[in-house]
Specification:
Largest sheet: 13 strands, mixed
Radius of gyration: 28 Å
Shape: elongated
Number of strands: 37
Number of helices: 2
Helix content: under 10%
Distance between the termini: 62 Å
Mean pLDDT: 82
Structural class: mainly beta
Strand content: 35-45%
Low-confidence stretches: 403-419
């Protein structure tokens, strides 16, 4: 079968050998490009322009609607002004031409004046099963400028999607992963969505995710957001190797409600930085079953050092862990040596933890009778001794923050919260 190369009236041409390599590397069903003020969509298997017009949304939607069994739409570099939402369906891929070592060409989507709806949305309307969700979609190499309103990618009721090398700026929500079905049955929650190598800048919410199952966010940069990542009632979420910086309210917010809990959330090997008085990780727990929250091996900026409100993590999270995190001098464990002066029976210690420790142990260097601790606050505690020493006496102390208490031996390894 011979695939006809499109003719661009603005004089752009591609050598036949280059065009054939493009077709082989990107098995697109349609190529869409901008020709002056006209947008054109050509079906590569047939040749010739199938759809054209000055309204980018209409041309793009016509191409998508014609793909009854799914397909790939490749966007040539240029700026596409959307006047209405683009609705995608099962097995649709939207791929843009992206800058490379030899070309600075990019594919950009903007909003037309007066348009504030979703830039990309799905056609899924939940009925009663997973089969009603939109499945197998891919969005790659596209840049979105949201014009400071609305949602960019609204992936409600989507199963199995890849969002890769996408940039979004100036939206209320850059990426929304939602669900509008039975909120008490997590067996039909959508999910298995991969957000990879994206960059989300200057959005109110970087990623807002609720009632999803089995998602992953990796190698993504999220900056200048009120909330970089907002997660509500999700299960089996892996957040790894991302950068969160310059967030105004909170980097990662985890929330449950009375109907559904959070479970198996892994946040590891990420980098956090902010110069604002913002929180790094905040967990709102109201459901008794919220558990297995693993916050390990992350690096937090130095600015968390002097701010006890940098983290808000409930103490009753079962089978959870907060360990191996660096950059803020042992938030979950601190130790030192205090000195009780001669003829005195107490000394006040500054523990340098993020909040009040759950456990403080003390060991005196000499026999000064019974030793105990009281008045434990977010910054200090006081060590007392039964017998006043005749000379200055050292007391070795260790303070710990425990996030959960294991109830089964199988999970003991998850409940050691030391750096």
């Amino acid at each position: 079968m011979v695939i006809k190369m499109p003719v661009f009236s603005d004089g752009q041409k591609i050598a036949a050998s280059q065009w054939n390599r493009l077709i082989e590397s990107i098995p697109a069903s349609y190529v869409i490009w901008k020709d002056g003020d006209t947008y054109r969509a050509e079906c590569l298997m047939k040749g010739g322009t199938d759809y054209s017009g000055t309204n980018a949304s209409t041309v793009i939607q016509s191409a998508i609607d014609s793909l009854t069994n799914g397909g790939t739409i490749f966007f040539k570099a240029g700026t596409y002004e959307l006047s209405s939402s683009i609705t995608i369906k099962d097995k649709i891929s939207l791929i843009g031409e992206m800058e490379s070592k030899v070309s600075s060409a990019v594919t950009i989507f903007t909003r037309a004046s007066g348009f504030s709806g979703d830039m990309i949305q799905t056609d899924a309307v939940y009925v009663d099963s997973l089969d009603d969700n939109t499945q197998d979609i891919k969005i790659k190499n596209l840049i979105f400028n949201g014009g400071n309103v609305g949602t960019c990618l609204d992936l409600t009721n989507v199963d199995t999607a890849v969002i890769e090398e996408v940039r979004v700026a100036y939206c209320d929500t850059a990426i929304y992963l939602g669900y509008d079905g039975d909120q008490t049955n997590d067996n039909v929650y959508p999910g298995d969505i991969r957000i990879i190598k994206c960059r989300l800048d200057a959005n109110t919410y970087g990623i807002y995710m609720e009632r999803n199952l089995g998602n992953m966010i990796s190698h993504t940069k999220i900056s200048s957001a009120d909330y970089a990542l907002y997660v509500k009632c999700c299960k089996i979420l892996h957040v790894t190797k991302n950068s969160f910086y310059n967030f105004d309210t909170c980097a990662i917010k985890l929330v449950d409600d009375s109907n559904e809990h959070l479970e198996s959330i892994i946040i590891n090997d990420n980098r956090f930085y902010t110069t604002e008085s913002a929180m790094y990780i905040d967990i709102d727990k109201t459901h008794a079953s919220t558990s297995r929250i693993m916050i390990n091996d992350n690096v937090f900026s130095y600015s968390a050092l002097d701010r006890p409100n940098a983290f808000d993590i409930p103490s009753d999270l079962s089978y959870s862990s907060f360990r191996g995190n660096t950059g803020y001098h042992a938030m979950s464990e601190q130790c030192g040596v205090a000195s009780i002066s001669a003829e005195n029976t107490s000394v006040t210690v500054t523990h340098n933890l993020a909040w009040a420790p759950d456990v403080v142990t003390v060991t005196p260097a000499a026999n000064i009778g019974s030793v105990w601790v009281d008045t434990i606050t977010d910054t200090q505690f006081t060590i007392h001794c039964e017998t006043a020493p005749t000379s200055d006496t050292s007391v070795y102390w260790l303070s710990l923050i425990h996030i959960s208490e294991p109830t089964r031996p199988l999970y003991i390894s998850y409940a050691v919260f030391c750096l």
